[in-house]
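The records we work with from here on pair a chain with its fold. Taken together, the tokens spell out the fold as the letters spell out the chain. To see the layout at work, look at the sequence and tokens printed below.
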Amino acid sequence: MAYFTYILKSKVKDRYYIGFCENLFKRLEKHNSGNSRSTKAYIPWEIVYWEKYHIKKDAIKRERQLKKLKNKKYIDNLIKNHSGGRPE
């Protein structure tokens, strides 16, 4: 089992959303379908960053760490330096 900490970016506003999940693509689909109250106003979203973890607690810890930063410049640099690829 894998867990992901992820960052989404709105395609219509300069907004990020940080979260964690087990299935990254199903979670993106849920955000883009309007089923998530916190992201509904900024649809459509795209995945711009992710980190993979084998332990759920680690993914949650990283999500909280990123959310506490509230530093757009740090997030922009994190995304810019991300190697990309397709999460598995």
Notes: The mean pLDDT is 92. Helices lie at 24-32, 56-69, 72-80.
